[in-house]
Amino acid sequence: MAVQDHSHRHLGFHLPSRRKTAAVDTTAVETAAASVATRAYVFAGLRLLTGFVFLWAFLDKTFGFGYATQSGNGWIDGGSPTKGFLSGVAAGPMESTFHDWAGDAWADWLFMLGLLGIGVALILGIGLRLAAVAGTLMMALMWVAEWPPAKHLSDGSPSMSTNPFAEYHVVYAVVLIALAVAGAGAVWGLGKAWARLPFVSKNRWML
Question: CA 92 to CA 115: how far, in whole Å?
Fold first, then answer.
């Protein structure tokens, strides 16, 4: 009767290898870190593009580069940044109010300082919370001036509104809020240095 040697037979159950587990954990950590870095760069790019939108609007309205504001009609030439837009409001509950505000010095200054402040804050990556509040308020007023819910203007002509709510002013407001919530000033910006300033660290609403 032959004696069989079972000394080299392996069991079907294997304990997990610590080396393989560690490798998997390291890969997961690296993947998560890469995802966080990618998100930070995406938000930074979005911040810079949005900042350029506001800053360019300020520069064009100030100097009349010939785009939205014709040469010679800039603010520096005596033109009004708000008169054309507000006097052209033709729908909504604040139509007459906007007409009264059109061209007023206080309206021009608030509008232009808002564009400049929001644009600079976004480009530099500082004060994003303040920029989000100011920008959302500005976008809300401009939304009311456009009044997308109206199908017809006050003279009865079609308003040509493409959406009764979600038009570009709403999108800009949401982008500003998202940038502030994400703290998007740390990458390609001065957000980290800004946050370390004593008066900012004591007043977190200035981040």
Answer: 24
Between CA 52 and CA 194 the distance in angstroms is 20
Residue 115, C-beta contacts closer than 8 angstroms, at least 6 positions apart: 54, 55, 57, 58, 61
Question: From CA 79, how far away is CA 61, in angstroms rounded?
Answer: 9
d(CA 9, CA 26): 33
In Å, how far are 61, 77, 108 from 71, measured between CA atoms?
10, 9, 18
Task: Say what the pTM is.
Answer: 0.86
Give the pLDDT confidence of 3-37 residue by residue, as tens digits.
555 544 554 555 555 666 666 677 878 888 888 99
What is the C-alpha to C-alpha distance for residues 156 and 152, in angstroms, rounded to an integer? 5
Q: What stretches of the chain show up as alpha helix (H) in DSSP?
A: 18-63, 83-87, 95-101, 105-124, 128-146, 168-182, 191-196, 198-201
